[in-house]
Each structure stands twice: as C-alpha cells, then as structure tokens.
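Cross-check.
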Amino acid sequence: MLASDLTRAEWTAFIKRRAAELGFMACGISRAEFLEEEAPRLEQWLAKGMQGQMRWMENHFDKRLDPRRLVDGAKSVISLLLNYYPAPEDQQPDDTLKVSKYAYGRDYHHVIKDKLKHLMWDLQAHIGEVGGRAFVDSAPVLDKAWAKKSGLGWVGKNSNLITPGAGSFYFIAELIVDVELSCDGPIRDYCGSCTRCLDACPTQAITEPYVVDGSKCISYFTIELKDQLPASVQGQFGNWIFGCDICQDVCPWNRFAKPTQEAQFQAHPGLKDMRETDWEEITQEVFQTLFRHSAVKRTGYAGLRRNIAFVTGQPHTTETPAQGPASDTE
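Predicted model, tokenized:
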C-alpha cells in the first residue's frame, strides 16, 4: 500500500500508540529487506554446528534472512517488546532449584499472539486493507536482528537484545506487513569492555563476544536436548532445571529492569515456595498445577524430572523426555 510521508508518519504513530496501550514496552519499525549483515553470521554459526539438535534452525535459511519470503509484498517489520521481568519479591530464592524467569507465568506464545491479533485488527480498521502475519518465536524470523534494526536495542555480547534503561528481560515479537511505514534507525552498542556474561557462563557457551554456541547453553541442555544429559557437563548447571538466566542476571544493564505489568506473566503462587526436596519429589499432579499454562510444558514432566535428577545427582531412568513441538512450526 502506497502512502505519502505524512500518512506513513501518522500510521506509524498510531501503531506505536496502540502497541503501548496493549502493554508492549516498546515498538520499532524497520524496512522489510534482506538481512545482508546477518547472512554470513548465520551461515558460519550453522556450519560450526552451534545449533546442536535444534535442526529446525537449519531450515528455511532464505526465509530467515528475507521477510518478503514470509509475507508477499512485505514492506515493513514492526518489532515489539513485552516485559516479563518478575518483581524481586516474586522471584525464586537462590537456594532452591530454578526455572528461567520467562517461564514463570502463562506461555508467552499465547499471551503475545493475542496482543498481536488485536494490533493487526486495529491496524486494518485504521488504515484499511493490510496484509501481514504475526510472529512469536515460532517461525524462521531473526527477532533480535529486526529489533536491532528498528532501534529497540543492541545485541549484546551474550547475544541478547539489550535496551538502554530497561535491560533484556523481555520477549520480542513481530508483525510483518505490506504497508510502508516510517522506519527507525539502529542505536550504538553500549557493552563497552564489559565481559561479565562471558566470565559468568558456567558452560562457556559464550565462546567469544557476541557468539553463543547454542549446543553448550544450559537452556539448550534443559529444554531442547531430547537425549540424556551428557556426563561432561555434570555439575555445571548450578541449580537451573529449566532454562538459565545467568548471563542476564549478571548484565549491568538489567539493574534497570522493572517488574512487568502483564498479569498473565505472574508466577503460580506455589512456585516460590518450592524447595529442593519438593522438586526432587515432584509429581505429575504438582507439575500440572504449577505449569499447566507455562512454557515449562515444552520439556514436559519427564524432561523436568531428568533435569532435576541431573542437577541434584539423583538416580534417574533413561527414558527419553517427552517434549512439546519445536519452534519454526508455522
């Protein structure tokens, strides 16, 4: 859809205003075009096998780099951030087994998709006929690259998008649309000489600044890996049984993180009360109560039991954990 500069500016202002009303913490726009800078990086990352068993990362290479292959006539990528950071008093204590903060509440896929649907409806009602698709970490879209291009932050040495004044505890989502909008520009990198994330990673998954070997990450082992956990990493997970927040927890920029206002991301009240013995004795019923609507269902009860046994040194059966659907399924 063609538009004048004045119309583009008005449409863009409307989208950002409506995104804020829907609870998104930030919204940025970039032009839908081939990601030339990311192409060789992705190719090298895959060539080195850093995707591990995440074979879906090898699929749709061209689509990952060009949104026009995902949406016919795509002209703009609308990137959005949604804060999930729990209030300090709602976080799990350090002396228990832990799940990543992003999985405390309702599965973010469902929460964000609902918001994106509303934003798309509002966009169509305001502008007219608009074609596009919503994406929430389940299709071949390089979320961080688009958010970076739209000025929502820079990609830090731990490979997470970092936003000045906010940190990195948020989800990234997109609407790719066939409408020309006013684009934002990238901001500079503020990591400086800091290496706290590299120094803190217990499995040395951050092999060099800005490069994370996914196959060495605690999140990969505890969520994505379907096999039994390798003895070579025994004792390196600390108390993490689903995901890992270490490289974010140590990042100085996350001192600016503010508690989420999204009620659906509030943790089940029983989660904070779980102690190590409770985790070791967790039943299928307790698992369902705590994580019925959580992303922890991704690894399933058997997978979580495997992780708990590995971290605590308990004996465990060799059954393969049942897992939910992989990403890139759209």
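The first strand starts at residue 26 and ends at 31. Strands lie at 26-31, 76-83, 98-99, 132-135, 154-155, 161-162, 170-177, 206-208, 211-212, 240-242. Passed to J.P. for a second look.
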